[in-house]
Structures are given as C-alpha cells and as structure tokens.
Amino acid sequence: MKLKTFTPAEVTGRKVLMRVDFNVPFKNGKVTDDSRIRAHWSTLKKLIDARAKVALVSHFGRPKGKVDPAFSISQIVPDIEKAYGLKVVFVDDCVGEKVAKAVDALNPGEIVVLENSRYHPEEQKNDPDFAKAMAAPFDVFVMDAFSASHRADCSTCGVIPFVKEAFAGDLLEREGEMLGAVSENPAKPYVLILGGAKVSDKIAIVGNLLDKADTILIGGGMAYTFLKAQGKEIGKSLCDTERLDFAKDTLKKAAEKGVKILLPVDSVVASAMDATDTEVVTSDAMPADKMGLDIGPETAKKFAAALEGAKSILWNGPMGVFEDPKFAEGTKYLAEAVAKMTQEHGTISVIGGGDTASAVRQFKVADKVSHVSTGGGASLEYCEGKKLPGMEPFRA
After folding, report:
1. Cβ neighbours of residue 275 closer than 8 Å, sequence gap 6 or more
2. pLDDT grade, residue 318 (50/70/90)?
3. Could you confirm whether 377 is annotated as catalytic?
4. How do 291-295 and 266-270 pair as beta strands?
5. What's the confidence (pLDDT) of residue 1?
6. 220 is catalytic
7. Which residue in 14, 15, 19, 36 is the catalytic one?
C-alpha cells in the first residue's frame, strides 16, 4: 500500500501533532523493551530537521478513560529522551490550554510529549468534539503508530478533519509497504507460517490468503485443532472444538486449490507447562495425559525445508511456548531458517508483530529478516484484508 507522506517543505516551522506508540512493556517502574519508541525516530528526525514544533501523543496501558498514575506517560519520559538523545517537555494532558501554551513556547525543532490519550473516555469513542479539541493547537497531523492503526480513535484518525494537512509517517509507510508485499500481491512461491494458541485469531487471515499462498505451515497450539480434525489423538493439547469444522474445511479447500498445508509430525510434550517430564512424540502417538507445547525436531526440519525456494514469507504466531527454554527450540529453528532465506536468497520475510516479533528478537534474528511489524493486532487485520482506519485516510 502506497501512503501519502510529507516533504520537509510541508512541515517546516509548523505545529505538528504526531501519533506515536509509546505503549511499551513496563515492569517494576522500568521500560523493558524500547523498540516501539525507537521505531519512530526516522519520522521524528525529519520533523526536527524541518524545524517543526512537534507534540507526540500516545496511549499507554488501559486506564479505561480515567486518570491513573500507574499509566502516566511521565514514567517513560527518561526512556524517550534516551532513545532519541534529546530533552523533551512533558505536558500532563493531551488537550486544552496547557498543550497549546507548551507548543507555542517551543523553539523550532523541539518536542513535547503529551499525557496518555486514554485518560479521556472520548478518545476511544472517536468523539468529534474531543478530536477537534485535540487538533486545535496544530497545523499538521502525522500518523506513525501502525500498532494502533486498527483503532478508530481520536488520536489515530479522528483529528484529521480538524487540521490543515495530514500525512503518514515513515513507520506507517514502511508497514504498509512490507505487509502489502506479503498479503496483497506476494512474489511466488509464497509461504505462510501460522502459529500461536487460537485458531479463531487466524480464521480471517487463512480466508484472505488461502488463494495466494503456495504452502501453509501450521504450528503452535492451533496445530492441534487441525490434527484433531484429521482424527488424531492430541491428548491434553489445546483444541478449539468450535473450530474443528473450519479446520476440516480449510484442509479440504487447500487440497482442492493445490495449496500444501504442513502440520506437525512430532511434538515436544509434557503433562503441564511447568512439568519436567518432557519428551518428543510423533503426531500418531500423542499420550492421552500430555499436551503438545512445541513442534518437534522433525517438524522443525520439514518446516525449514518447505521454505526453500520461497520468494515471500509471512509469519504470524510462534511454534510453541518459546518463552520457556524447554519449548523454544521449534520457534528458534524456524526463526533461523527464515533469517537464512532472507540473507542468502533475498526472500522477502515479514514477521507479523506480537509474540512472533518478541520471538525473533529473543533469538537475535530480528535484524536478519526483511521486516518485523510493530503491530500484532494491526498486522493481523491488515493481512486479513481489512481496511485500517488509521491507514486508509493516507492511501495515495
């Protein structure tokens, strides 16, 4: 997807409201991963170099429309300053006179960080009066928070009618370009990798991409619903019983269309996630008292072999409970295989955000794939073919 972006001349010296995503992992008073903060630097630097006066607005956590110090963006200001290498001004609201005065007082090229937009219940209701108030101090709106682009909030799209001009930022543009490359008209052969726990999360993406994929690899918890649909014993493994008919139908449609669907031929199992009685079993010999928690070594090899020759790869959902070393090897093996295809063969590889993004960072291959999406839900909805309210207004 091509998006409308700004030139330096279009923002020089102007007051700019930039929607970012500062909803970062935060534990014990510390940001544990500042990737989302750093992802906006390209766009922000262009605005700073153009001597724009910039205010950054974001949500943080789920304060549910109320002021709650636990969700104050003031807590992450030091991390913002560290990531960008500059001092910022913090304003304890995102609308009103305080914001207008702070922006007016900026020197060209300086920035302010606004308080959590979700302190106001009107934000997620996309209330037009609130959007108008949020936009009032500004000339230009720049949307750069892809991970929030599937939400029709005041700060993602509602402000657009109330500013002179609106543009997509570099991050939003990059997401549209890369996700479009693996979901709209992917270079073939095209391999779709699906994992994670729930089949229901992936129904729409399967429906949208079944006609485009050449091969679909299914691992993670969702694989056991498909194995059950084939009549196999899955023990205590996850099973979405309400989606068994969908799984059967998908397998049938894929066969009719000539699309290969590969399911696990073996699994790493245990009696519980915190148990130590792990073993590798074939998919035809699942113990009734155990659950599959990772794809097995033979499956990992078969999945990696299925990537050979691929021109495009989209991966959404890990192959197992990768956070636990006992169940991490399948996801790690596949992550390294995807990285190898990218580095050695020029394959376009896109990681669909969320847990999969966490996994490729954990296994230190995030910089060896083509693109790691910053949005879990947003990337899923994009690849489902949905129109995202925070992206559509900028479609070129």
Report:
1. none
2. very high
3. yes
4. antiparallel
5. 79
6. no
7. 36
